[in-house]
Specification:
The chain has 277 residues and is of the alpha/beta class. It contains nine helices and ten strands. It has one domain: Rossmann fold, CATH 3.40.50.150. Helix 3 crosses helix 6 and helix 4 packs parallel to helix 5.
C-alpha cells in the first residue's frame, strides 16, 4: 500500500533515498517566493484541484471533526495502490504528505480550537509552518485570527490548503517560501509580522529539528509566541525538550493509531528559551 509507505517513511525517520538529499537540503530549496490568498500559482491549478478531489475523500475522522479536510484515507483506492510513477512528470501524489492529517498536527489543531479564544487574543497574524493539509491554519482562522499564513514548500500542498480552507468557509493565505532557509523575519512586512507560530508534526528528523530550533529561537527573541504539536518523533530531542513546556496531551482516535504505527497520543508544547518542564 503506497499511502502506508508514506506513513512508514515519516514514522521510521528515514530520508527519501531516491532524491539523494537530506531533509535539511530538501527544506533548503525554495519552491516559491510569493504569498497567495486562497490560490496557488501552480500552473495546472484547476486540473490539480480535480485530481485532489477525485483521489481523496472529505473526512472528519480525526481529532478535529469540526474541520472537513480532503484526505487520503483507507476508503480511497489510491491509498491501497502501488506508489505512482513520476516518469512523466506526474508528481501530484509522489509524496503527498499534505494528504495525511499527522498526529502532531491533529493535537495542535484540537488545542487551537479548544483554547484559541484565549490563545489568539490580541494576536492578529498567525503562521502555520509546514502546514500540510492546513488544518491548524484553518483552526486559527475559525478562532478569529485576522491573518493566517499557511506555509508549505510543496506547491501541491498549497493548493490543497486553499481547497480545505474553502471547504470550511474561511480564507487563509498560502505561501510556498522556504522560510527556514533565511533568518527569521527576513522579507516580512510590518503587516505580516508573526504574532504566533504553529508547528505541527515537523520534528521527523534531528537535522530539521536543529534548523527549526535555531529559527524559532530568533522568533521567540523577537516576541513571537511558538507552539508545537508532536507525537514523540525522533527530532524531539532532550536538548529541544529543555526549551518546551507541556500544555496538553491528546489521545489519538483508533483509526489514527492504526495508520500511524504505534503513536497513541500527541502533545502540544510551548517553545521557550528556558527549561519550563
Amino acid at each position: 500500500m503506497w499511502a502506508t509507505l508514506i506513513v512508514k517513511r515519516v514514522t521510521s525517520f528515514r530520508r527519501t533515498a531516491d532524491r539523494g538529499k537530506s531533509t535539511v537540503a530538501e527544506y533548503s530549496t525554495s519552491l516559491g517566493s510569493k504569498h497567495t490568498a486562497q490560490k496557488s500559482e501552480h500552473p495546472n491549478n484547476r486540473m490539480l484541484q480535480q485530481t485532489i478531489i477525485g483521489s481523496t475523500e472529505i473526512s472528519r475522522a480525526h481529532l478535529t471533526p469540526e474541520i472537513r479536510l480532503h484526505l487520503l484515507t483507507p476508503n480511497c483506492p489510491l491509498y491501497h495502490a502501488p506508489a505512482p510513477s513520476t516518469a512523466n512528470g506526474n508528481t501530484t501524489f509522489a509524496e503527498p504528505f499534505w494528504s495525511i492529517f499527522w498526529p502532531g498536527g491533529q493535537a495542535l489543531a484540537r488545542f487551537v480550537l479548544d483554547r484559541g479564544d484565549e490563545l489568539l487574543k490580541d494576536k492578529s497574524v498567525v503562521l502555520d509552518l509546514g502546514a500540510g493539509c492546513g488544518a491548524v491554519a484553518i483552526a486559527a482562522k475559525l478562532r478569529g485570527a485576522r491573518l493566517v499564513i499557511a506555509n508549505d514548500i510543496d506547491p501541491v500542498a498549497c493548493v490543497a490548503i486553499g481547497m480545505n480552507a474553502t471547504l470550511n468557509d474561511v480564507r487563509v493565505r498560502t505561501s510556498g517560501q522556504n522560510l527556514l532557509a533565511k533568518p527569521f523575519g527576513t522579507d516580512q512586512t510590518a503587516d505580516e509580522r508573526f504574532d504566533v507560530i504553529f508547528v505541527g508534526d515537523l520534528l521527523y528528523d534531528e537535522e530539521i529539528a536543529t534548523v527549526l530550533e535555531t529559527w524559532l529561537d530568533e522568533a521567540l527573541r523577537q516576541g513571537t509566541s511558538v507552539f508545537l504539536g508532536d507525537p514523540g518523533r525522533h527530532g524531539l530531542t532532550d536538548k529541544l525538550r529543555r526549551k518546551l513546556r507541556k500544555l496538553a496531551t491528546y489521545e489519538l482516535p483508533d483509526n489514527v493509531r492504526r495508520e500511524n504505527y504505534g503513536f497513541d497520543t500527541a502533545t502540544v508544547w510551548q517553545f521557550s528559551n528556558h527549561n519550563s518542564n
